[in-house]
């Protein structure tokens, strides 16, 4: 070994190529892109209005909670990816095994929680989309389907 949580290797020089090739870094980048797609689709085309009524409504069966949930977990997942990406950058410089242990456990716990939340989001958005009437959605249908698809992919990327 590398000591507890890799602590014996702490303090080495930063190698960008080796860093980017690490599986957790690649998974984090993919997760961030998926989260960005989900919340961008919902913010961009998740709300629409009818010609006779200018009031905006969520394309998912007029359920505002569906759009809010997708946007919320998407934004928080994207911010968490950035945070844990920064932790990954500084992780080799941390020599305290207790700090390293807590960071690893926090990453593991958060990833498990967010996997569950993406699963709930996928089920919720899919259910609401199945109850959406076709005449209520003219523009946002592709974005709604993309949000559902990438919330499904996010289950596995987290």
Topology:
Layout: H1 16-20, H2 23-45, E1 47-50, E2 53-58, H3 64-90, H4 97-130, H5 141-157
Antiparallel strand pairs: 1-2
Helix pairs in contact: 2-3, 2-5, 3-4, 4-5
Structural commentary:
The structure is a single chain. The protein is mostly helical and 158 residues long. The chain has one domain (18-157). Helices cover 67% and strands 6% of the residues. It contains 5 helices and 2 strands. The protein has helices spanning 16-20, 23-45, 64-90, 97-130, 141-157; strands at 47-50, 53-58. The chain has a two-stranded antiparallel ribbon. A hairpin with a 2-residue loop joins strand 1 (47-50) and strand 2 (53-58). Helix 2 runs antiparallel to helix 3 (64-90), helix 2 packs antiparallel against helix 5 and helix 3 (64-90) packs antiparallel against helix 4 (97-130). The longest helix is centred in the C-terminal third of the chain and has 34 residues, at 97-130. The radius of gyration is 19 Å and the shape is elongated. It starts with 15 loop residues before the first helix and ends with a helix.
